[in-house]
Structures are given as structure tokens and as C-alpha cells.
Specification:
Low-confidence stretches: 193-198
Structural class: mainly alpha
Number of strands: 0
Helix content: 40-55%
Radius of gyration: 18 Å
Shape: globular
Largest sheet: none
Mean pLDDT: 84
Number of helices: 10
Length: 231
């Protein structure tokens, strides 16, 4: 069955939950989209137990197990929607937030993508050094470093024009597709020698306090995410 993308209302709800985390390392919706895209495109399947703490930082706010389950289910559905688009050979359009003037800058999405590249750094470095394919990351790095505190890291001396920004965003989306294809064989071999590539995550079941935590840690929910997310 084709994954069902999140509705606007569900995206707004997910954004509101992310905003409640309130940690300096937690992500907004745009950063989350870029982060998940990098994980899906990358060289290895990263388990939720490793990447979820990167999403919510050091502070999480869930009222109960049901709220935590809903959050995880939304994350998984969004993951599957991205994976389905890339797996079908289509270009995935980044989910970008607009400012007060209605302009989508793309900086947060690109920074989220770079945070996803923290997993499997050696393999990402090989891509960067690849003369034929390394260019797939150029637009992503340009957007991520547009306002870098270190002027030497900024890609342009002058402000990015509207036309150039649109070009960079389109190039970042196209680059994501190329990256997905670049690492596809590696994911195929490293994650499942039988050939069942787990690009897609299973539907989230109902979580009981004594059930295994869905993050994949092997612990009971009440001793893992249920312990750190409930108050």
C-alpha cells in the first residue's frame, strides 16, 4: 500500500510538538524534513534509538504514552512518504517553511540534512571526494552555510538573490535524488543481504508501558522513551 503523506493539519500538529521540546538542539519541521531525507538517502539504515534524540534534543514533552506514540507514528509516516517518492524515481520536494514575507529560504532544511550526515561520516566523506558525484551536495552546503558565523564558510559574499535561492533549492532536491541512488547499492548490501532493503518503516503499533520501545533500543517502553518523555 502506498504510504499516506501527512495532511496539513498533521504537519501543523507535528510542528507544534517539535516546538514544545524547547531544547537548543531540537528541530523545527523544516529541519526534521531535511534530517530524515539525509537518513533515507544515506549509506546505512540508522535505527530510531540513535536518531530520535537528535530530533528532540535533551528535552521532550509528552503528556502520556498515547502522545508519544502519536508523535512516533507521524515521524514514521513522514519517513515513508519521503522514501516512497525517492524509491519511485521521483524528485522529493523539500518541506520548507516561509517567513513573514512568504519567502522559503531553505537554510533550516539544509542544516537538518547536514545533521543527518553525522551518521556514517566516513561514507559521506567518500561522496564529497567523488569527482563525479560530490557535486550533489554543493547546493545543500551552500544553503546550510549561508549565514555561517565564520564568514570564510559562507558560499557567497553578497546576499543570495531570489533567483539564485530558487536555483539552489531545486538543485538541492535534485541532488538528494542523486545521493539516494549513489548509496542505494551500499544500503542494499549492508542492511539486508537477502535483498529486502528496509527503506520503509513499519506502521507504529499501540505501545503498552511494558512493551518493547519502538525506538529499537531493546528496552521496555517505560524504561526508555516512556521514561524520558512522560511527565
Amino acid at each position: 500500500m502506498k504510504p499516506k503523506p501527512l495532511t496539513d493539519a498533521e504537519l501543523d500538529h507535528l510542528s507544534a510538538v517539535l516546538a514544545r521540546f524547547g531544547d537548543k538542539r531540537s528541530m523545527n519541521l523544516e529541519q526534521l524534513d531535511g534530517f530524515l531525507a539525509a537518513l533515507i538517502c544515506g549509506p546505512e539504515l540508522v535505527p530510531p534509538s540513535k536518531y530520535l534524540p537528535k530530533i528532540w534534543g535533551n528535552r521532550t514533552v509528552f503528556e502520556d504514552a498515547s502522545s508519544a506514540q502519536e508523535f512516533l507514528s507521524l515521524i514514521m509516516r513522514h519517513w515513508n512518504a519521503i522514501a516512497d517518492t525517492l524509491n519511485s524515481g521521483e524528485v522529493y520536494l523539500p518541506l520548507l517553511l516561509e517567513d513573514e514575507s512568504g519567502i522559503a529560504h531553505g537554510n533550516d532544511w539544509a542544516s537538518g540534512f547536514l545533521r543527518g550526515m553525522e551518521f556514517g561520516k566516513e561514507d559521506w566523506t567518500l561522496l564529497l571526494d567523488d569527482e563525479d558525484h560530490g557535486g550533489s551536495l554543493v547546493a545543500i552546503f551552500a544553503l546550510a552555510n549561508e549565514h555561517n558565523p565564520d564568514p570564510k564558510m559562507r558560499p557567497y559574499k553578497d546576499p543570495i538573490s531570489t533567483e539564485l535561492r530558487e536555483t539552489l533549492i531545486v538543485s538541492a532536491a535534485a541532488g538528494m535524488m542523486r545521493i539516494y541512488q549513489y548509496f542505494k547499492a551500499q544500503r542494499f548490501l549492508s542492511n539486508d543481504p537477502l535483498g529486502n532493503m528496509p527503506d520503509f518503516l513499519r506502521t507504529m503499533p499501540k505501545i503498552g508501558r511494558n512493551d518493547p520501545c519502538p525506538c529499537g533500543s531493546g528496552k521496555k517502553f517505560k524504561q526508555c522513551c516512556g521514561k524520558t518523555t512522560l511527565h
